[in-house]
Structure formats: structure tokens, C-alpha cells
Specification:
The complex is a heterodimer of chains A (184) and B (655). Chain A is mainly alpha-helical. In chain A, 53% of the residues lie in helices and 1% in strands. Chain A is built from 11 helices and 1 strand. By secondary structure, chain B is of the alpha/beta class. The chains are: A mainly alpha (184), B alpha/beta (655). The complex binds flavin-adenine dinucleotide and iron/sulfur cluster (3 copies).
Chain lengths: 184, 655
């Protein structure tokens, strides 16, 4: 990203695609930085939200799709709620994740995040709610770090925040329907 | 002698650095002082009432006020004295704010200095004498110099109120820079549609005499009574006979770059600057006309159906008298060719903003089609570089030109309207859109017209494969950027002009180092110049847009109307006076007086002595300082008054 950026080679297609998918106009952003100021994950990423916006305005595609930001984003929607120009940045983050998956942009750093999201959804699919113990155990095994966060186990058990067995909702049938329709 | 001393806190402007109570207590011990008070705001109503109460109850006959600069409130406090029945010249102001509290941080030292200033004021006030002002007639005619939108507006406002106005414009037509514009922010209305009707109204107004192609040559006199020489340059066209048909301009074989179109195309030696020019009468450029130079050609004369070409015409010098003068001589673009990094002017497709105005204009050299100068092609990528020349201390211009951010956004809109498939990039440092509807205007350029704003100055423009390459940075992205463009428009900053500086010298008004005229007070007297009776309006005072220019012009007009609504004017009695018994007739004073107020007077014995014309004298005191036998005294600043002031300082009164 420290090469000189050729403004003539702007990826119009990419800009259009993101604008269409998110329903947002990228030029509406005037780079005030309020999204970044309120974003809980901004400090832990190379490209905080306002910079993602600037890169999008300039049609910079690969680095955005490959960035950790779009996967670290918690969808807390703080950015959207506070943006003075009514840019729905959380929606844009959604569109970016979608596009990254569609284009198969994979990068070492974002692998575990993607895996976590998959395991999370697997659990929801199966039980209709999160099964923390199982999801975390699978995540730790698959990422070859079996003792990760082990020190939290006892305090959480003591407070009743973790259960050994999964709980399910009643109407799993309906849930299956929702998953099916969302994938079509 | 009963002196009252009043020390002002000025909110805490003074009291923050000066121990005002201590100063007041000290004053009470000075000779002749019968009362001393501190006041929160001496200029406010309670402050004024307190001073008047003391004058009446304590029978004060001299007043010292330790407050702000006399420039701010001397007149206010003089009125206070008058209302309490005292002569206004029995007042002495000690400037405890600008000359003390504002410039010192050490409280103890500042307080000591304030005490010194009060000692001096009390010393001087004891010697002051009542003075009476005299009255002079006020001429009701107004001279407006400069026929841009500022001059036009001011002239119409004064003339509409029934007073006579003379407008002097240097070029062959009125209209100024606004006439060059296609559409104007923030409403994007067509400039000609709002300007040309005013130009015509001015030319046909029964109370206005218009002298175009004319200049002010010499000015003398004073407020209410100015004498002005106006040089009407020979147009070599008889304005009475000419019908403005323009036949001559079509046939003239000589060509020169057209000033009005900023060199984008050519005009003849006989030309009308632009189709809506007022007056719509050609002028012959004597520097290139071959008939004028070598008596060859004369085609225009042969062609003119009304025999209006008048090669024999000579300059004419008019002597006129006015009560007030409004200066509205406008601005120019800075010389941007000093920037080698933008090509010094060697690339044809690097143009100035004013040139772009002409390219956008339907009556411009390209008929309103955006074509670049080099090959007449429609540009696809247009780059605008903001702040060229402005905010650049390294090139001696630290100030903001205030309109370029707005017209850059305007260009983005107009360009995309003309060429919907073009791309417009604006390289900027900050976007300054401070006025009504301005921020919305800039937002619209981005949101609706897709203007691409890149935050960062361009460091270099150069040619590569027939395109212009801009090297810049996107500071929001934190990365260098590069753009290939077909046309580069430089938003060149605004400067005062050499012509305004020359005029300022004739008028004896002050200007700054950039050629902008200086107002008498930046907040409270924004349209008054440093010389009474001369007012300033428009971009000659500082860079400004049309709405502000018009507001200032109307404001100057209202000041003029206020002035000429009087039949007589009180003159200041603070003038110099010659003691003819002491004067030896050396006339050193005559040489130094900047206002030509000193005259020769022949006495009955035939000897010559100096005399001061009190109407012209501005009370500067140069004559009294230079006079070898000390024959000239300046009222209010006589030798004994100044010596008494110094004695006050040196008397080491107990603190
Ligand atoms: C590129 C550009 C675009 C702009 N676009 C806009 C816009 O869209 N909207 C907006 O609001 N503002 C705009 N402005 C600002 C606008 O041009 C000024 O506000 C306005 O022209 C100022 O008017 P003026 O009468 O003070 O000065 P001028 O228009 O400069 O007129 C001064 C007049 O005085 C004459 N003169 C000069 N010296 C003498 C002399 N010694 N004796 C006699 N006559 C003399 C000149 O010949 C001229 O006719 C723009 C400015 C620039 C540079
Ligand atoms: S808060 Fe909105 S306008 Fe401000 S930088 Fe973020 S997206 Fe842009
Ligand atoms: S929604 Fe995402 S980008 Fe927006 S504030 Fe929350 S975490 Fe940050
Ligand atoms: S108005 Fe804008 S472009 Fe012009 S000098 Fe000021 S900041 Fe620069």
C-alpha cells in the first residue's frame, strides 16, 4: 500500500458494486473520522473504518477485501448510528464481507475469523442458539491451540455462564427453513 | 483645577494585567485630582452615567480616562463630556489596554506602567484648553472609482437616493471581473443575467455620469471638499457618433491577445471588449494601431458608417469637485508563473481559474464548449488545484483567498454539466465554505456531481505522452497519488493591484503589503479608509465573493449618504497654527506637510510667512516638529502641554 496510487486506474466496477450492494453513496462520506472514533475494533486494525471508506472512494479493491477490518467488525452499528452524513457503514462492511467470500479472497490473518464465524453459524443451525462450550472447543482444536483461553473456563463455569451440554430451541424445523431461504 | 480620573477594567481586558484599584488610589494623590474611580466598562451606559455624575457633582473641569485606544472610544467619551456640559477637548485618554495590559504579562510591571501613563495624562490634562471646531460646506457629489460590481452597486445606491455620482473606470467597459464569469456560486445563476441589467441601469441613470477608459490623476482637498483631476483617455472613437455596430472591429487587420478573455483568443486594434460591454463602443489600442503608429491602414475609418473614428482625439483632463469618494478598484490573480513545479506557464493546458471562467462562458472564446487550449479537444479528466499562490508563506502570501474553494466546487458542477462523462479531481488542503448555502454547495458537488476531492497539495505537474501528469498526495489515505489529466485549472489566489497602490498614494489612504486597502477599524469601521471622506468597497479591501462585495458596497454608499446628508461639517480643532510673529518664512513646513495644508501668506510689510489651512490640516504635527523657531503649535499638543505631560512622568509621584 505504499506505492503511488494511480488515480486514473480507479476500479469503477468495484465502486458501483459496493454502492449497489450496500445502497450507500461512497462520495457522501466527507472523511470526518467519527466512525473510527466510535468503533470498538478500530484500534486493532490496520485500516480503521474511515480509511476503509476513503479506500472505497478511490476504488482500492484488493487491500480492502483482504483487510482484517471487515472480519473484525462486530456489526455493532455504532458507525452508522453516529455518521453525520448518514452513511450506513455497517451495511457497507456486510457488503464487503459478502464480496470477499464470493471472490474467495483469503488471507492467513483472516482465516481463524472466518472459521469462527462458520463454527458459530454451525451451532446456530443445529441448536437455534449458541452452544459456547462446543463451539469454543472445536475452534481451539481446529486452530491447534487446545489450551487457548483455558483460564476463563473455571470463572465462567462458576458463574453459570457456560454449560457442558447444548440447549436447543423448540421449532428447529422453522430454523432450517430460515437457513434454507437465506442461502437461496 | 478639578481633575477626575476614571480607570476602566474593560471587563477583565485591563484588570487582568493591571491592578486598577491601585492605579485609582494612586491617582487620587496627584495634584489637582479630586476624584478617582474604577469602572467595569467606562463606555457602557452605567460607566458614562458615573462619569457625568462626577463631573456635575464634583464640578470637574478636566477628565482623564484610563481605558482603551482613543481610536476606539475617544468620540464616545468626548460626547460624555459634552452631555455633562464640558468642552470635549478637556479630555485626556490614557491607553491602558492596547499599550499596556494587552502587551504585558508581568502584573507588577504593567501596573507600574499604567501608573506612569496616568501620571502623564494628568500632567497634560491640566494644561488643556477648551477648543472650538469650525464648520465647512459639504459638496454633495460622490466619486466612485472602479466599475466592478462593487463600484456599480455603490454608485446606484447613492444615485438612487437622489445624489449626483461620477464613476471612473480604467478599462473601456464597466463590469469588472464578474463580467468574465459564466455562472456564480452559491446559486449558479448566470452572472451576465444579474450583472448586465445593473450595468445598463448605471449607464442610463440620470444622476450618474460614467467615465470609462479614464483614470484619477490627482486628488487634493479634504472630506466634504475634494478636488479631483480625471484623465479621460482618448478612445479615438467619437462616443456621440458611434452606434456600436462593430463594423470596424470586424475589419481591423491587426491582432493582439484579448485582455477580457485573458489571452485565450485575439482581438483587433479597434475592439469592443465583450458583447455586453457598457458602453458598447469600441476603443482603439494606440500601442498597436498601424494608423496611429505609421499613418498606414485607416480601414476602420473608411468602413465606419457614421464617421465616428476620430484619430485626432486627444486625452481630456476634467477638474471636478466631490464631497465623498468610494474606492472599488477590485483585484487581480496572483502571478502563478513563479511556480516552476506547475510549469511556469509553459503548458498550454495548465490554465488559471479566470481563464476557465471564460472557457465556460457562452460568450467566451469557445462559445461555452469546454475545449482545451492546446488542440481544442474536449478534456476527459480535469484537475483543479486549489490554493495556488494562497496560504503560501514561502511565496509571501500567507492569506486565504476565500473564494477559490467555492469556485472550485462550482467548476466541478459546471464541468460535469457540460461533459457528463468527464472526471473532475480537486486537490485541496481544507475546504472553506463558511457562508450561507456554501457548505451545502460543496456537498452537492461531491454527492450529486461526483467531484473527486483529494486532500493534499500537488507537488508537480509535467507532461508525459501528451497528457499532463499531476504528482500529489492523498493525506487521508496517507499515500502519494498520481493523476493523468487533460486539462489542469489552477485556482490562483487573489491579490491587490499595482493600480490600487498607485491610487492609494494619490488619495493618501493606507494599504497593506499585498495591495489591499486598509480599513479604519477591522471590526467597527470596515468601509472607512484611513482618510475621512474616503470609503472602500469590494475586493480592493480583501479577497471576497460577490454577496460580501455587494453588502460592503451598499454599506459604503450608506456611509457616504450619512456624510452628505449634512450641509456643513464640523472640522477638528486639533490643527496646527502659525505664530506669525515667530515665523521666519523658511517654509520647511510647506515641504513636509503631507496634506498640502500650508500656504504662503504675505504680510502688510511684504514679508512672507506660513499659514495653515485648517480645513486641510489633519493634525499630524509634522510642521510643528520641523519648524526651526518653533513658530507652529498643534492645538491639543502644544509644547507646554507636552512638557507638562513629561513632567508628570518624571515627577516620581509616590506610588
Ligand atoms: C476565478 C474566480 C471565480 C469567481 N467566482 C465567483 C462566484 O461564482 N461567485 C461569487 O460570489 N464570487 C466569485 N468570485 C469573486 C468575484 O470575482 C468578486 O467578488 C468580485 O468580482 C469583486 O468585485 P469588485 O467590484 O470588488 O472587483 P472587480 O470585479 O475586480 O472590479 C474592479 C474594477 O475596478 C477597475 N479598476 C481597477 N483599478 C482602477 C483604477 N485605478 N481606476 C479606475 N478603475 C479601476 C477595474 O478595471 C474593474 O473594472 C470569483 C473570483 C475568481 C477569481
Ligand atoms: S462517520 Fe461517516 S462521514 Fe465521517 S468518516 Fe465515517 S463514514 Fe465518513
Ligand atoms: S459496525 Fe463495525 S465498523 Fe462500524 S463501529 Fe461497529 S465494529 Fe466498527
Ligand atoms: S479559499 Fe480555499 S482554495 Fe482558496 S486559498 Fe482559501 S483554502 Fe485555498
Amino acid at each position: 500500500m505504499n506505492r503511488t496510487l494511480k488515480l486514473n486506474q480507479v476500479d469503477d466496477q468495484f465502486i458501483k458494486q459496493i454502492e449497489q450492494n450496500s445502497g450507500q453513496k461512497l462520495n457522501n462520506c466527507y472523511q470526518c473520522g467519527k466512525c473510527t472514533a466510535g468503533c470498538p475494533i478500530a484500534h486493532s486494525t490496520e485500516f480503521p473504518p474511515h480509511k476503509i471508506m476513503r479506500m472505497l472512494q478511490l476504488g482500492i479493491k484488493e487491500p480492502v477485501l483482504a483487510s482484517a477490518t471487515i472480519w473484525l467488525c462486530l456489526s455493532c452499528v455504532t458507525c452508522t448510528a453516529r455518521c453525520p452524513k448518514e452513511v450506513d457503514l455497517a451495511h457497507i462492511m456486510d457488503s464487503l464481507r459478502e464480496l470477499a467470500i464470493k471472490e474467495g479472497v483469503t488471507q492467513a490473518r483472516k482465516q481463524p475469523i472466518k472459521l469462527f464465524e462458520k463454527l458459530f453459524l454451525d451451532a446456530i443451525k443445529q441448536h437455534g442458539k449458541l452452544y459456547e462450550m462446543g463451539t469454543l472447543a472445536r475452534f481451539n482444536l481446529l486452530t491447534l491451540q487446545p489450551v487457548k483461553d483455558l483460564e476463563l473456563l473455571w470463572p465462567l463455569l462458576k458463574k453459570g455462564k457456560l454449560k457442558f451440554t447444548p440447549e436447543s430451541i423448540n421449532d428447529l424445523e422453522k430454523l432450517a427453513q430460515i437457513f434454507k431461504s437465506s442461502q437461496s | 483645577m478639578k481633575i477626575g480620573v476614571f480607570i476602566c477594567h474593560c471587563g477583565n481586558n485591563i484588570s487582568a494585567a493591571v491592578g486598577v484599584e491601585l492605579v485609582a488610589r494612586h491617582a487620587l494623590r496627584l495634584p489637582g485630582v479630586v476624584c478617582a474611580h474604577t469602572i467595569h466598562h467606562a463606555c457602557s451606559e452605567p460607566g458614562q452615567l458615573l462619569i457625568q455624575k462626577c463631573i456635575r457633582e464634583k464640578g470637574l473641569n478636566r477628565v482623564v480616562i484610563g481605558a482603551c485606544s482613543p481610536r476606539v472610544h475617544e468620540a464616545t467619551f468626548q460626547r460624555v463630556l459634552v452631555q455633562a456640559g464640558l468642552n470635549p477637548y478637556l479630555l485626556e485618554l490614557a491607553n491602558l489596554r492596547e499599550q499596556c495590559s494587552w502587551v504585558h504579562e508581568d502584573r507588577e510591571a504593567a501596573t507600574r506602567k499604567a501608573i506612569d501613563l496616568i501620571d502623564m495624562a494628568v500632567g497634560k490634562v491640566a494644561r488643556l484648553q477648551p477648543l472650538l471646531s469650525s464648520k465647512v460646506d459639504v459638496n454633495k457629489r460622490t466619486l466612485v472609482i472602479g466599475g466592478g460590481i462593487a463600484g456599480i452597486q455603490a454608485a446606484l445606491d447613492v444615485a438612487d437616493s437622489g445624489h449626483e455620482v461620477v464613476l471612473v473606470e480604467r478599462t473601456p467597459t464597466i463590469g469588472g471581473n464578474m463580467a468574465r464569469m459564466d455562472k456564480v456560486f452559491p446559486t449558479l445563476d448566470c452572472s451576465a443575467c444579474i450583472l448586465t441589467p445593473k450595468m445598463v441601469e448605471l449607464a442610463t441613470h440620470p444622476n450618474i455620469t460614467l467615465h470609462t477608459y479614464s483614470e484619477v490623476e490627482q486628488v487634493s482637498g479634504f472630506v466634504g471638499n475634494f478636488k479631483v483631476q480625471i484623465r479621460k483617455k482618448a478612445r479615438l472613437v467619437d462616443m456621440e457618433k458611434c452606434t456600436g455596430c462593430g463594423a470596424c472591429t470586424l475589419k481591423c487587420p491587426i491582432k493582439a491577445p484579448a485582455e477580457f478573455n485573458l489571452g485565450l483568443d485575439k482581438r483587433g486594434a479597434v475592439y469592443i471588449p465583450f458583447p455586453q460591454a457598457v458602453p458598447h463602443i469600441p476603443v482603439i489600442d494606440k500601442s498597436i494601431c498601424t494608423y496611429v503608429l505609421k499613418k498606414k491602414c485607416g480601414l476602420c475609418q473608411k468602413i465606419c458608417p457614421t464617421d465616428a473614428i476620430a484619430f485626432e482625439q486627444q486625452d481630456e483632463v476634467l477638474e471636478e469637485e466631490f464631497g465623498a469618494i468610494i474606492v472599488a478598484t477590485g483585484y487581480e490573480l496572483m502571478d502563478w508563473t513563479v511556480y516552476g513545479e506547475y510549469g511556469h506557464g509553459k503548458y498550454k493546458d495548465v490554465i488559471t481559474s479566470l481563464q476557465y471562467e471564460r472557457i465556460l462562458s457562452a460568450s467566451g472564446p469557445t462559445g461555452g464548449h469546454i475545449r482545451r487550449p492546446s488542440d481544442g479537444k474536449e478534456p476527459e479528466v480535469i484537475a483543479i488545484i486549489a490554493c495556488v499562490g494562497s496560504r503560501d508563506a514561502a511565496h509571501g502570501r500567507p492569506y486565504c483567498s476565500s473564494v477559490c474553494c467555492m469556485y472550485s466546487a462550482k467548476y466541478a458542477m459546471l464541468t460535469r454539466e457540460h461533459l457528463p462523462n468527464s472526471r473532475v479531481y480537486i486537490f485541496y488542503m481544507d475546504i472553506r465554505a463558511y457562508s450561507k448555502m456554501y457548505e451545502e454547495f460543496v456537498q452537492r458537488a461531491q454527492e450529486k456531481y461526483g467531484a473527486n476531492y483529494v486532500r493534499g497539495r500537488v507537488s508537480k505537474v509535467f507532461e508525459r505522452n501528451g497528457r499532463l501528469v499531476l504528482q500529489g498526495a492523498d493525506t487521508l489515505l496517507g499515500q502519494p497519488v498520481e493523476l493523468e489529466a487533460d486539462l489542469v485549472v489552477l485556482a490562483v489566489g487573489i491579490t491587490g493591484t499595482a493600480s490600487t497602490i498607485a491610487l492609494a498614494k494619490k488619495l493618501n489612504i493606507s494599504h497593506d503589503e499585498y495591495g489591499f486597502l486598509t480599513e479604519s477599524h477591522p471590526k467597527l469601521r470596515p468601509v472607512e479608509s484611513s482618510t475621512p471622506g474616503i470609503f472602500i468597497a469590494g475586493a480592493c479591501q480583501s479577497p471576497k465573493d460577490i454577496p460580501l462585495t455587494v453588502a460592503q458596497a451598499s454599506s459604503a454608499a450608506s456611509k457616504v449618504l450619512g456624510l452628505i446628508s449634512h450641509d456643513k461639517l464640523e472640522t477638528s480643532p486639533l490643527v496646527a497654527e502659525v505664530n506669525i510673529r515667530r515665523c521666519v518664512g523658511c517654509f520647511r513646513c510647506l515641504d513636509v506637510c503631507p496634506f498640502s495644508a500650508i500656504e504662503e501668506q504675505v504680510l502688510r510689510d511684504g514679508s512672507k510667512v506660513a499659514r495653515v489651512n485648517p480645513a486641510l490640516c489633519q493634525g499630524c504635527g509634522l510642521c510643528s516638529a520641523i519648524c526651526p523657531p518653533a513658530a507652529i503649535a498643534l492645538s491639543g499638543f502644544t509644547d507646554d502641554q507636552l512638557i507638562s505631560q513629561m513632567e508628570g512622568l518624571c515627577s516620581q509621584n509616590p506610588v
